[in-house]
What does this fold into?
Amino acid sequence: MIGLTVLYEDAKFVVVDKPSGLAVHRGASADEDDIVTRLVRAKIVDLRPVHRLDRGTSGALVLARGPDAARELGRAFEEGAIEKTYVALVRGAVGTEEVLVDYAIPRDEGGARVAARTFVRGIATAELMDSPLRERRYSLVEARPVTGRFHQVRRHVKHLGHPVIGDANYGRSEHNRLLREKLGLSRLALHASRIRAKGLFDVGSPLPADMANPLSMLGLRTREG
It folds into this structure.
């Protein structure tokens, strides 16, 4: 459907696998391709996105069938009944003990700072032995945001001192460039691997090849891979 893999569907919701590089909404971008535009062009009037993923982030994205389903899921987000899990490749060594990042950030772009919390834990760490940079270690991490703020996961791992690789806003250009040259990692290394709405659905998204292959070259794998 609209050129995207469907991970799950029922009478109320459809969960699609969004690739990195495709926006959900056009926003300020001049691009003519995004998920909402694809729905309009396909004349699919009963589906609408009910949350967002950054353009560079891949993974599970929920679409609601009509306004009633959208309101139901909106209430679930407000009540904290939605659980989202991300995996990311970050700079530096991250311990496997889960930590809570409690650091206020804007709710939306340009907005006032509001409370934001994310649980972060390291899955595995590897070293790029032939790296010319002082920090040669990289970690695969799991992040579970409790709140939903602008660039929350990206900002919170940066706050810990471990920015996401491929992040042009909060990352380090020398590390982004090195892993692009060495591993072919030319995207934001952030993936929405699971979304669960209590009593409604529980859907996972497999790691795409454009992220899984560079991780494999680095010697890192998710629990699924």
Observations:
- The chain has one domain: 5-218.
- Helices lie at 35-41, 66-78, 152-159, 173-183, 209-218.
